[in-house]
Amino acid sequence: MHRTLKLLSYSGLRSRTTVFSKTNYYPIFLISQWNNNLSCRNSNVSVFFRALFTHSSSTTYSRRVPDPNDPSTLMKEDGVAVCSQMWIENFQEPNKTVTNLTNYLRRLELWVLAYQKVCADETGAYMPRSAITRSALEDLLALRNAVLDDRFKWGARLQFFIRSPKDKTDYESLSKRKIRAILTTTQPSPFQDRIVQEVLLMILEPVYEGRFSQRSFAFRPGRNAHTVLRVIRRSFAGYLWYIKGDLSAMLDGMKVGMVISSLMRDIRDKKVIDLIKAALTTPVITSKVDDGEKKKKKKRKYQKKRVLAEDEPKPDPYWLESFFGFAPEEAELLPSWGHCGILSPLLANICLDELDRWMEDKIKEFYRPSKSDVIWNSSDGDAEQGNTSWPEFVPTSGPDKTRKIDYIRYGGHVLIGIRGPRADAATLRKQLIEFCDQKYMLKLDNESLPIEHITKGIMFLDHVLCRRVVYPTLRYTATGGKIISEKGVGTLLSVTASLKQCIKQFRKLSFVKGDRDPDPQPCFRMFHATQAHTNSQMNKFLSVMVEWYRYADNRKKIVNFCSYIIRGSLAKLYAAKYKLRSRAKVYKIGSRNLSRPLKEKKGQSPEYHNLLRMGLVESIDGLQYTRMSLVPETDYTPFPVGWRPDHEKALLEYIRLEDPKTLEEERSCLRDQGLISPQDYVSMLVWNYKRNAVAVDQLSSVLTGENSIETMGSEFLSTSNDENSNQKNRSEEDNEERIRVALM
Q: What ranges does the record list as Basic and acidic residues composition bias (predicted)?
């Protein structure tokens, strides 16, 4: 008996010793004592087990505590998932005051995502999360902790928490002259500053995108200049007076107090507010070089071609640089405030959002419908009445006509349309001047806010808004079946691309010379490139120009003019390069679209086409849109009322589907209409097969209306009840049979 107890106890204790740590000497000591004394009594064994279990119950097992300085333990989710959750939360409650942004500032996932974006801008290649080194993650964690502990300083030049992967400079071994140059001259924004800017942008953008007005379109995702032109074509056709305002002086810089007060209307997070305030107040070091101190650099006789480093991104190609030169005046200025960087456009929209809200109140206040007008004659000003892009030509002055205004803003430029007398436009302009003076301390006058009539043409985004009077023939059937044809009068809002602005942009890029009769100039930037590469670059430029003038009424004409300028410029370039003397000779050899090789030598075998077939030479693409018939038509796709970008529509749809009320409404709708959902139908099929072992398809009866959902459910229940009763009868008969056999 002692031997059996000893074996059982030893095996149990041996398994228990693996649970305790090496520091728990008391249980191990008891085990050793018990193993040495094999002749102990049963009472001693019971006392031993009682002491052992008492100690084990009172002992707390030590677990490994996660290291707060280990980046791998802090990254629990994906950064994109965290951003998506922020967008969903802010769109669910867009008017809620936000107070918990510091919690998102602590999320290392957002910092890693910001690091990936900045590295992509810095090196020109995307860095996946798995490619980020351990040292970079530790430096990123140090930067995050410095921001949270108020140890981060904007615009640091020598002391960094994290450095760019391209930066190989040893700052400790720099000379005093180089250190002085770094501290006193203009330098690009530090790498760590751009990471902090990206994190702040990812945190603040979801908060304000759900609050911004639907009448602002610049510096916002999913909205661009094309959206503005489509809104103008749809909603501004009934207005005769226009106010075009230039508030771009606000984009150059605003007082810090105004920016912070605009932020604190919706955000009550001290950490984020202080971080943005420090970015605005920290001075930016810029160097000014006087003309007398400029040293004339001697040009080398032979210019060496600059070779890019391995991790250095390529500069913008020539066609893209040329297209950026076509940016209209309204889209040319990009705000940059202090050390805010990419956060500056968002801050500008936050400040100008008060102007948008003020104008929306003025739109409601100004609206006075008239039953005698053909458009906007209902009490609801937002409802579309008829086709506003084809309104009947009626005078807009007088007390019996509708008075209405509309407003859009693109960056620092506003456009206001007024339907009513000019006196209303003058009153609105006066109120707008007073509002800008009181709110933004911006001094405006009548010249900066001119009132123009639609017949003179209003320039906006390099497109001219004007009115065309048309006389369509109206045919209708009168009483008695008589067909009557009458001449009607109507107006169309014409949105045409400005040829004058197009010539101005070409002149700025040195493509043309002259105003009235522009003469193409050779683009010597492409002198050393091959004909195939040059044609390819210009075709890409023409493709983006076709897309830019997509919604212009004169799209064919303006694109054909651009093609003429580009073709003439290339012809002059090739004439100078291949010494062909004139453009006519270039067109004769290279054809109209310059698709034939200009350097082909005659008498050589094989010919150019044979070499092209063998892949020994580049294929030369001819210039596009050399004829007006090749230019695509203007896009007149209707612009829907209440338009939103695709990402906002997806967000709102997701929020609506996640709402329990939506599911309840759908179920009640199904019940009211006597329909059956697919889930309920499958459930009925499975239940019927389980109870009856027969697959009965009653969908046809439901569709024909023979049985409703209640009837189907009652049938299923009745069949199941019948089956239960049959089973019960069978079991009773079996029991009676067994009793009868037992008695026999």
A: 729-744
